[in-house]
Amino acid sequence: MSQTILIETTAPVMVTGATGYVAGWIVKELLDAGLTVHAPVRNPDDAAKVDHLRQLAAASKGHIKFFKADLLDVGSYHDAMAGCEVVFHTASPFKIDVKDPQKELVDPALLGTRNVLEEANRTPSVKRVVLTSSCAAIYGDNADLLATPNGVFTEEIWNTSSSLQHNPYSYSKTVAEKEAWSIARAQARWNLVVVNPSLVIGPSLNPDPTSESFAMVKQMGDGTLRMGAPRWGFGVVDVRDLGKAHLAAAFVPTAAGRHIINGHNTDLLELAKLLLPKYGRSYPIPPRAMPKWMLWMIGPMAGGGMTRRAISRNVDLPWKGDNRRGVRELGLEYRPLQTSMNDMFQQMIDRGVFAKA
Description:
Rossmann fold; 3-stranded mixed β-sheet; 39% helix; NAD-dependent epimerase/dehydratase family protein; NAD(P)_dehydrat-like; oxidoreductase; NAD(P)-bd_dom_sf; Epimerase_deHydtase
């Protein structure tokens, strides 16, 4: 962070989805700043889910309080939000393999956003809502880059290529963010600041992370990608940098609008290659590209959204995102990509995710 942020700590803040991968680092930033964090969770008594957050609070200047709430239960955020000036809404499922996209992705994303923001409308203390959206609300496939004005994804662009049938996760993030803007523009008491991260990587504070990012990196070390990794382009950001971005989005007075939070434009093979110097002798890190024709043949059998339409519209195509607004307006800085990958991979080794080859 290249600028000092003045943070008023007298009022609490609320973080939905506080036990999640991204939210954990947001909570840490808030606690280290001396804030009281209200964390609405499904079961506050589930020690396996919340103990790591209690430990973060114990080692910080701040405090954490847990509340029982459910994303789709209207009114369940009332107690947690009471007295809060800033609300962080991070809770939204990130899954690729789903049987019912509407029920598993769109409903939680859209109805959950509506539930939280309408509660903000009923809570007079709220001054700002920070929404964790995604670059998935800006684009659906790398091929979409061809239709951008200057060959780069910017905050002015919206995803128009995703649907329930194609890239349903991206579709869920798009409709949820649009709903947030609709609710925000219909009132004048609180302002909405949106964070649009690219693919999030880096170590987790949660001892049992479930993000798709970990499933992706696991394939680099367990032999799944031994034959090669596709040149599937995307942007990535370190989860620790993303946590700082949320802090800035909440407390930089002039913050407004959407912000692409993206540290690096890269692809799957390049990420894997960053692991080779340190881990290549002990783990089957893919050193070469998997040809598109091969992926075309085996991809649909592998699942994970690897349809032939997705392959044709993403593999061997670059991803380019413009992160200048976040750097300029939020004072963001991004750590080296190799640091993020090595820290994440080492943590997975330490947790026994895979054994040495």
